[in-house]
């Protein structure tokens, strides 16, 4: 059974996804591989390093702007989000970017993957921000 904060977050993001993507989606799509509110470029920070040929999981993918961009760089990216509505946006964005990004609806506190399924697990603004870090950090690891 979903914990109270998980139910709250899913309800919030399902209700707010259209507004969030209308307000921020175009900007996020213009700078898909940039970090945080200040949009610091990955090319400058080198958080993920080389992604070509690697399997990547984006926790809290929203419209999957990061995941789609990483596929264009040669990664095998999977987008995970708690919100069905955000995943609808991710599907549309992936189609518009002409990439295939497998999308999974789940929370970051209990990932539906076997251990060591991914080379890289990351989150820009998503699951790690809205989940219990005592549960998400071990899951990501």
Task: Jot down its keywords.
141 residues; alpha/beta; two-stranded antiparallel ribbon; 6 strands; 15% strand
Structure write-up:
- This protein has 6 helices and 6 strands; from the N terminus they run αββαβαβαββαα.
- The protein is α/β, with parallel strands linked by helices and 141 residues long.
- The strands form 2 sheets. A 4-stranded parallel sheet has the order 5-4-3-6, covered by helices on one side.
- Strand 3 (55-59), helix 3 and strand 4 (76-81) form a beta-alpha-beta unit.
- The two termini are 23 Å apart.
- The model has no long low-confidence stretch (mean pLDDT 92).
Question: Quick summary of this structure?
Answer:
The protein is of the alpha/beta class and 141 residues long.
Describe the strand arrangement of the main beta sheet, using strand numbers: 5-4-3-6
Number of strands: 6
Rg to the nearest angstrom?
14 Å
Low-pLDDT parts are none
Distance between the termini: 23 Å
Per DSSP, what share of the residues sits in E-state strands of 2 or more residues? Answer: 5-15%
Taken in chain order, the helices and strands follow as: HEEHEHEHEEHH
């Amino acid at each position: 059974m979903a914990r109270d904060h998980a139910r709250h977050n899913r309800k919030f993001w399902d209700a707010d996804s259209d507004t969030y993507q209308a307000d921020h989606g175009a900007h996020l799509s213009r700078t898909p591989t940039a970090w945080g509110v200040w949009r610091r470029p990955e090319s400058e920070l080198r958080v993920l390093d080389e992604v070509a040929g690697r399997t990547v999981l984006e926790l809290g993918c929203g419209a999957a702007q990061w995941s789609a961009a990483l596929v264009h760089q040669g990664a095998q990216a999977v987008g995970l989000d708690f919100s069905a509505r955000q995943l609808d946006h991710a599907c549309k964005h992936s189609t518009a970017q002409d990439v295939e990004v497998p999308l999974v609806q789940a929370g970051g506190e209990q990932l539906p993957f076997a251990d060591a399924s991914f080379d890289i697990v990351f989150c820009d603004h998503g699951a790690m921000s809205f989940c219990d870090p005592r549960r998400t950090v071990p899951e990501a690891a």
